[in-house]
Specification:
- By secondary structure, this protein is α+β, with helices and mostly antiparallel strands.
- It has seven helices and eight strands.
- The strands form two sheets. Strands 1-8-5-6 form a four-stranded antiparallel sheet, with helices on one face.
- The longest helix is centred in the middle third of the chain and has 15 residues.
- The protein is elongated and about 70 Å long.
Length: about 200
């Protein structure tokens, strides 16, 4: 600090006008950001081409979530595309956070979602005396393929592709393609460019 105050070590001194940082969403004190990286915010953003969703709060994980190894394989439906495919099987693949892992993986859990989640919806309504849709959210995006990442992690950000057939809890954030492709999204999110911008925004 003494060297910085005296100006004797220019390598640790950042002289950044606040007007530049105001161009970053939320105006964080990202004093290390280069002018070029800040100017990039004036162009289109990722959410112009993709939709990000938070997963459901299932209400009682001990009852409604399992690891797929705990249940007979015959009771798991891995090919669901929507509510009409949830009438015969009790268990469906479900993204539920997990360790820091890039590209693919952390597909260890299943959720009781028979009859479009009838049991967990009824359970959380009884527990909260409120409508289930306040907690079990994003169900319109269940069973679509997308890109996911763990909602809370102490490690480096890591995005993973997953195929159709998955629900997802609040431990997982998911993104779905609009005009963009999933390949482009996962390559971007796992790049050093994304790490740089996430450091500015977080």
């Amino acid at each position: 600090l003494e060297e910085a105050a005296k100006g004797t070590n220019q390598g640790i001194v950042f002289d950044t006008p606040f007007a530049r940082m105001k161009k970053i969403p939320g105006a964080p004190l990202a004093y290390w950001a280069s002018p070029a990286s800040v100017e990039a915010f004036q162009y289109g953003s990722v959410d112009d081409a993709y939709t990000a969703k938070k997963g459901m709060a299932i209400g009682d994980n001990a009852i409604f979530l399992r690891r797929w190894t705990e249940v007979s394989f015959a009771q798991i439906c891995r090919t669901s595309h929507g509510p009409e495919d949830t009438l015969k099987h009790r268990w469906y693949p479900c993204l539920h956070g997990g360790e820091q892992r890039k590209w693919y993986g952390n597909q260890t859990h299943i959720v009781n979602w028979i009859n479009n989640g009838e049991e967990p919806k009824r359970n959380i309504t009884q527990k909260t005396d409120d409508h289930w849709s306040r907690y079990i959210i994003s169900t319109d995006f269940f069973f679509r393929r997308g890109v996911t990442w763990t909602a809370i992690s102490s490690g480096q950000f890591a995005a993973r592709y997953y195929p159709e057939g998955f629900a997802f809890t609040s431990a997982s954030m998911c993104a779905f393609p609009g005009t963009g492709t999933l390949t482009a999204l996962i390559l971007l999110l796992n790049s050093c460019v994304a790490r740089s911008y996430l450091a500015m925004l977080s």
